[in-house]
Specification:
By secondary structure, the chain is an alpha+beta fold. Among the domains are: 43-95; 116-168, no CATH class. The chain has 2 helices and 8 strands. It has helices spanning 65-74, 76-96, and strands at residues 43-48, 57-62, 110-112, 115-117, 134-138, 143-147, 159-161, 167-168. A hairpin with a 2-residue loop joins strand 3 (110-112) and strand 4. The N and C termini lie far apart (85 Å).
Length: 170
């Protein structure tokens, strides 16, 4: 097979086609065959075992809506049993594949002031008068509640954790 030279002065649209026919072929209209045992399924019904991507999925297929209705009516008892058993298997599998160190991952995160915040408390001690909200910061040997005001000049004094577990400003 040879390709035309892209730097040639001729345009490929100027070249005549090899075969031109004036007769047009007539096509048969497209029809959907009736559902039979050998034909692919036309109706799909899915049951998802949760809201996440890791949830199990049970799929039932039938040739038509009436066939799906008959299947659900005839197999209601076994289908209920199957869904219950699938839920147990999903629960077992989720527990088996949970990350080491307990829990199902990390704590919920919030997006504040362009940053992801892992741990926060919306309120400090009962007598705290900070109206901006406070964020808990814990290190190996200290912890404090810091004001969440955007401007440093607007920030309230930090509250430091005391030995008794309460928080006070220094």
């Amino acid at each position: 097979m040879s390709y035309p030279d892209p730097f040639d002065e001729r345009s490929p649209w100027d070249e005549p086609t090899e075969t031109t026919t004036t007769a047009t072929a007539t096509e048969a209209p497209v029809t959907t065959p009736a559902a039979t045992a050998d034909a692919p399924e036309n109706v799909t019904l899915s049951f998802k075992g949760g809201s996440g991507y890791d949830a199990s999925l049970l799929v039932l297929r039938a040739g038509s809506v009436s066939e799906m209705n008959e299947l659900l009516e005839k197999e209601a008892g076994p289908l209920k049993s199957l869904l219950e058993r699938a839920a147990k298997v999903q629960s077992f599998n989720t527990g088996l594949n949970a990350p080491a160190g307990g829990g199902g991952g990390s704590a919920p995160k919030k997006f504040e002031n362009g940053r992801v915040v892992n741990k926060s408390t919306d309120a400090g001690p009962a007598d705290d008068d900070c109206q901006h909200g406070r964020k808990l910061v814990e290190k190996a040997n200290w912890a404090a509640l810091f004001c969440q005001a955007r401007e440093k000049s607007d920030q309230c004094d930090p509250l430091w954790r005391q030995k008794d577990g309460s928080y006070k400003a220094k």
